[in-house]
UniProtKB/TrEMBL annotation:
Organism: Campylobacter californiensis
GO BP annotations, alphabetical order: cyclic threonylcarbamoyladenosine biosynthetic process
Gene3D superfamilies: NAD(P)-binding Rossmann-like Domain (3.40.50.720)
rRNA-binding recorded as keyword: no
Official protein name in the record: Sulfur carrier protein ThiS adenylyltransferase ThiF
NCBIfam families assigned to the protein according to its UniProt record, in alphabetical order: PRK08644.1, thiF_fam2
Keyword annotations: Nucleotidyltransferase, Transferase
Domain of life: Bacteria
Domain annotation ThiS-like ubiquitin: ranges: 32-73
UniProt gene name: thiF
Gene Ontology MF terms in the entry: nucleotidyltransferase activity; tRNA threonylcarbamoyladenosine dehydratase; ubiquitin-like modifier activating enzyme activity
InterPro entries: ThiF/MoeB/HesA, ThiF_fam2, ThiF_NAD_FAD-bd, ThiS-like_dom, Ubiquitin-activating_enz
Length: 284
């Protein structure tokens, strides 16, 4: 017998691989696990996720393996939905995410993409700060829709995150960040992602990294404008607790604007580094 997790609940099974588990559960259409899956319309699954990997192969099951059975197109109940979202991660990553709090300073092209990527992964808590509203010109690169025009970015992004992953705790601050309040706003966070669209804000965060934010990892961005090669965007360690993502050269200027592709690439460099830091991994 081994103990594995099936759709978020621990069960003891005899099976040593996925095919044996399917047979054990579904052949006689009876038993505790089958009845459990029936409650959530997953008694005739056609998607199988084993330890974060969606597969059609017959994978070996180990003690502690995490298996999710999904019936395509069926909305699961909320208590199973959380397990299904987490199923695409490794157990180690889920453990790191379960206690994580990450801040996002600025909710424009960078920040809205960073926050949604982290929400999709399943970070436990996000602290979001911005003073602005959604404008039509934002829609070329920011994760908002026409229906959000005129809304506070904090409110619009919180609503989007809830639609993506309702299990993320979202704390919002409708405030203009500066050196007098940035430490208080991001006090609960171990990592702060800088996502300003102005040099003054970026300089402030880097300066505070050695002062009021010295106990946090800071991830900033520099150089993502235009349609230059995606491969120029990189992640570097800039100082003891400061990391920079971008090509470090191509700032927004006349004739070289900010557009969705490169902004989103840079934003996801920031989000990916945040995950790596939570896992205790280096930037590179």
């Amino acid at each position: 017998m081994k103990q594995i997790v099936i759709n978020g609940v621990k069960f003891e099974v005899l099976a040593s691989d996925l095919n044996e588990l399917k047979s054990e559960i579904f052949d006689n259409k009876n038993g505790e696990i089958y009845k459990f899956l029936t409650k959530f319309n997953a008694d005739e699954p056609d998607i199988f996720i084993v330890d974060g990997f969606a597969t059609k192969e017959n994978l070996v099951l180990n003690d502690g393996s995490n298996v999710v059975f999904i019936k395509r197109g069926v909305m699961p109940q909320k208590d199973v939905l959380k397990a299904m979202i987490a199923a695409r991660n490794s157990p180690e990553l889920n453990e790191a995410l379960s206690n994580a709090c990450i801040g996002v300073a600025g909710l424009g092209g960078l920040g809205s993409n960073i926050a949604l990527s982290l929400a999709r992964v399943g970070v436990a808590k996000l602290v979001l700060a911005d003073f602005d509203v959604v404008e039509p010109s934002n829609l070329n690169r920011q994760q908002y829709f026409v229906k959000h025009i005129g809304m506070k970015k904090t409110e619009a992004l919180k609503n989007l995150i809830t639609d993506v992953n309702p299990f993320v705790e979202v704390i919002t601050h409708d405030v203009l960040l500066d050196s007098s309040n940035v430490a208080e706003v991001f006090a609960p966070c171990s990592i702060v992602c800088e996502a300003f669209d102005n040099v003054v804000g970026k300089a402030m965060i880097v300066n505070e990294a050695g002062l009021s934010l010295k106990d946090k990892q800071i991830i900033g961005a520099s150089g993502m404008a235009g349609h230059y090669s995606s491969n120029l965007i990189k992640t570097i360690k800039f100082a003891k607790n400061v990391h920079i993502c971008g090509d470090l050269v191509n700032a927004a200027k006349h004739g070289q604007g900010l557009m969705a592709p490169r902004v989103a690439i840079c934003a996801n460099h920031e989000a990916n580094l945040a995950i790596r830091l939570l896992m205790g991994l280096e930037a590179n």
